[in-house]
Protein: RNA polymerase sigma-70 factor (Sigma-E family)
Organism: Kitasatospora cineracea
Amino acid sequence: MSDRITFEEFAASRAGQLFKIAYLMCGDWHQAQDLVQIALSNLYPAWGRLTRGGRVAGLDAYARKTLLNCYISHRRLRRSSELPVGELPDRAAHGPSEESEVTLRLAVLAALDHLAPRNRAAVVLRYLEGHSLEEVADALGCSVNAVKSLNSRSLATLRKLLGPDRFALLQN
């Protein structure tokens, strides 16, 4: 029973961070919620093995890797990424300063969507989440040099796609 409570505490404290990672990887609010739920449900059966002997080191990395595997697996299903809407609004619902920030955020998400799943995951984990090259390599199951290569190619693609907008990203 204590493992279940410990898992619940872990899930409650890490769900927000896992959601942020999932959203940056997939770009869809609902899909990110689903990915976090699937990742946590996949983590639960292994919880006893992971926490045997009272160890808790590596749980965050294991959860991120589980989330990453769920994301890549979902992308392999090749489902449509179109979201149907009934009607488009006549005008934006944001003020001028908020509108430029929202526009920039949408441009970044759209640019990230052009990357392959592994490339997008590498960029999100390394640059948006701030993990080390070694942590990203461990999560992706590849070498540090492979992560450097993925990031190099991905950043070149993002620079090309974002054009002048990329400079606005560095100002905050």
Observations:
- DSSP finds nine helices and no strands in the chain.
